[in-house]
Amino acid sequence: MMKVPFYDAKPYDHLFFVPAGESLGVEFQFHAFRLNADTAASAAGAKAVCVFVNDTIDRACLEALAKQGVRLVALRCAGFNQVDLRAAAELGIRIARVPAYSPHAVAEHAVALLLTLNRKTHRAYNRVREHNFSLNGLVGFDLHGRTAGIVGTGKIGKITAQIFKGFGMEVLVYDLYPDEAWASATGATYLGLDDLLSRAHVVSLHTPLTRETHYLINERTLAMMKEGAYLINTSRGGLIDTAALIESLKQGKLGGVALDVYEIEEGVFFEDLSHEVLQDDDLARLLSFPNVLVTSHQGFLTEEALSEIARVTTGNLASFGKGDELQAGTEVRP
Ligand code: NAI
């Protein structure tokens, strides 16, 4: 039985990873705390560890892991911006991820956020519970006939675009590597980012977080967006300059913002802080806007996505345990 420390573990992780481990000879040691340089000693004796989006796999953490003999960090997510890939390569630690589990899960969540934001379902739900049946302030717009802008046409962006087409929206798309064949089959149009931002009523972000995409949405690009436009981010918080976003919201420029991800999620997202004082003033400010909707990084939270994440991650751990093998397409290199 291969023993694998598993960090930032939640009840739904146990539900999907325990059976996957049992069938493949992997015994997970579930830790509720996150992995970082200070907690890496808990990996002593393990050949591999399993982490999630808010573990901090920086150089210091990787050095500590290497000292413990760890040779694989298995990410149970698609994004890998939390890992110092160069340090990992230098230390001989391999990095694996789950490149595609259910892009539908995330795309559908992005659309759920848009529909909620536009028709104010979250506010209506609270109102009627208080027997307030007034409709004042709940006016939305028809998505049919409006223009959507998808930034990043990878797996998730493409599905989101296709759903928007289903609403009868015009779909503009932007990507460093345009897939023209897909665009013409779908009826989407590639444009430069600036043109997309200035024309779209709804902008949805679907690029990974990299040095180039960090603060892609900033004071300059926010200023290009249409008056009353909606901005949806289910990708990574670092794509948006939060301070600039708050400023733009205060000026009443954007119609609304829906975020499933946030710049500083660590220690907040995935936690129940309902009895504590929220220390992040920017997040507190965002939560105070009537036209901002925040969910706590739950795009991946469907049965299909969780079981696929558990299957691929555990498969990788088992094959690495036996012969240092990783499944094709799952390894991340600098
Ligand atoms: P993908 O790798 O299939 O697609 C990413 C696309 O972004 C590619 O087409 C790529 O060419 C494009 N891109 C990269 N750099 C760019 C740049 N500088 N400018 C323009 N386009 C650029 O990734 P996938 O599966 O669609 O996922 C997208 C992101 O969604 C992930 O990186 C992850 O951060 C996020 N995600 C969020 C989840 C959640 O629970 N909210 C769950 C899964 C993923």
Outline of the structure:
The chain is α/β, with parallel strands linked by helices and 334 residues long. Helices cover 38% and strands 15% of the residues.
Draw up the topology in text.
Blueprint: E1 2-6, H1 11-24, E2 26-30, E3 48-51, H2 59-68, E4 72-75, H3 85-91, E5 94-96, H4 103-119, H5 121-129, E6 147-151, H6 155-166, E7 170-174, H7 180-186, E8 188-190, H8 193-199, E9 202-205, H9 219-224, E10 230-233, H10 242-250, E11 256-259, H11 281-288, E12 292-294, H12 303-323, E13 331-332
Parallel strand pairs: 1-2, 3-4, 4-5, 6-7, 6-9, 7-8, 9-10, 10-11, 11-12
Antiparallel strand pairs: 5-13
The structure holds 1,4-dihydronicotinamide adenine dinucleotide.
1,4-dihydronicotinamide adenine dinucleotide is lined by residues 78-79, 100, 103, 106, 152-157, 175-177, 206-210, 212-213, 234-236, 260-261, 297, 299-300.
